[in-house]
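User: Structure with 3,4-dihydroxyphenylalanine, tokens only please.
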Amino acid sequence: MDNLAAKIEAAEDLKTLEEVRIGIFGKKGVLAAEFARMKEIPNEEKRAFAQKLNTEKAKLTQLFEAKKMALEAKAIEEEMAADAVDVTMYHGHSSAGALHPVQETMNRMIDYFVALNFSVEEGPFVEDDFHNFEALNLPAHHPARDMQDTFYLKDGHVLRTHTSPVQIRTMQRQKPPIRMISPGSVFRRDFDLTHTPMFHQVEVLMVDEEGKISFANLKWILEDFLRYMFGDVKVRFRPSFFPFTEPSAEVDISCIFCAGKGCRVCSHTGWLEVLGSGMVDPNVFKAVGYEGVSGYAFGLGVERFAMLIHRIGDLRSLFEGDVRLLEQFR
Ligand code: DAH
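Assistant:
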């Protein structure tokens, strides 16, 4: 029996050890054969024989378990050594990432407003009717609701069609004066060269005591902001309509491709429309319980800015996740 312990000790890997185990402890193993000999042992010696055998078996089991643990640890170590990665090794093909042009454009916008002490606010993507429409002076059945191809959820909620509801949420939460922007994703049922079902807007809102904020403030900040984004451009205000502002204006910049001379991009008008703006409609203030205040608001599409700045023709290419596109913006 002594050589059984030696056999266990001699096993150099788990496979050999398993063979040894079967030879000793298996159904047809040495121990089974020894126990089978009980029959031939005279009765008065049976007890001593069995005791000796059991002690031997316990010793061998202990030895086997210890060996098994040692060999397993050794196997893991060998595997780890074989898999080792040299993280310091130079690799000529490693490449740096780049910000997505939409994110980069949005960051630039945020930088501008944060420098002027605007706070950055967020709101939910799944909005209720009140915040997305009603409080923004867009009551049910108002024809202007059709301007926005809304995704409706079964429970009456919507995917927000613009970042304007964050105006409402911020005013409900805070007292005037308010100076905020809200960058984020918005959703509309639209898909073509210049529209994707998900895109990004930045909403801007400034509110203070009645008379403190006028259209002149709106005009100043828009001219300053648009020159910060596009360089030396002319800025033009066109009377327009939005339910949440009165008066409202759409804002154009002189075409950055032809310097206003007229080209294909600006449809030979010399101007590019870039955002919507206006003085906050009294009904919006009423909806949030504000009195004796005035303010301006504007909202813009980040993709539109990114496409103009980077001369991207097809908006959809921004969302295909093709690294060859992103590599151009490093
Ligand atoms: N919410 C408008 C849209 O999604 C953009 C907008 C226009 C926001 C005028 C404003 C505004 O705050 O005054 O098309």
